[in-house]
């Protein structure tokens, strides 16, 4: 973990910078653009928001990560159990790979347990959250509101009370407000106008890989623009299309070794 990283409660003067960081964190990850900056505003205004266990990460006076918790419910017939969920968990993209998200998760899991909540439920990335103890909801008899179970629905029991909990998971109805595209568009005008990229039709889910633009090519090494960084990345020998300056690429960013370009693509929005 980065030295001098501070995990603390969010203050009103942090709001814009937290939202901007979250916007950058999720930009072009699931679809062109992002909505997580708007979601954070929705969560803050929700009656189901739990600021006591939500946290931001600060480094050298800048907000570099955040996680927001809200109440959720597991319903089994007439029985309703209160648990918590979280989202978004966001990290400044130029600082990925430094365990900022991990630091936020470990601290907020501790706070949630101390607060007496029975457990944490979420819809999230199944490759990431098991490292913190999350398991598939199916193991505990927990489904989504339609009765479905899948890898992304995960549970972390925090005390013995959870052994008696099963049923359908319901999150705060306020989350549905994020579908308001007009409100998202208006709020997004308050932030920098970043380039939107569409890699493919439908859901993109660009995680553990990154989108960049090639600025120069020298043999089999490209300089790839990723936010404010230029990252040297090797061109894989079996690429069907070789990148040139200006190419949009998907690349693997190895923070401790060689980064690699794994695909050249055309931005479907241009």
From TrEMBL:
The keyword Membrane does not apply. The keyword Transferase applies. Residues 5-159 form the N-acetyltransferase domain. GO terms for molecular function: acyltransferase activity, transferring groups other than amino-acyl groups. It comes from the Bacteria. InterPro entries: Acyl_CoA_acyltransferase, GNAT_dom. Keywords: Transferase. It holds the Pfam family Acetyltransf_1. This is Predicted N-acetyltransferase YhbS. It comes from Pseudobutyrivibrio xylanivorans. The lineage of its organism: Bacteria, Bacillati, Bacillota, Clostridia, Lachnospirales.
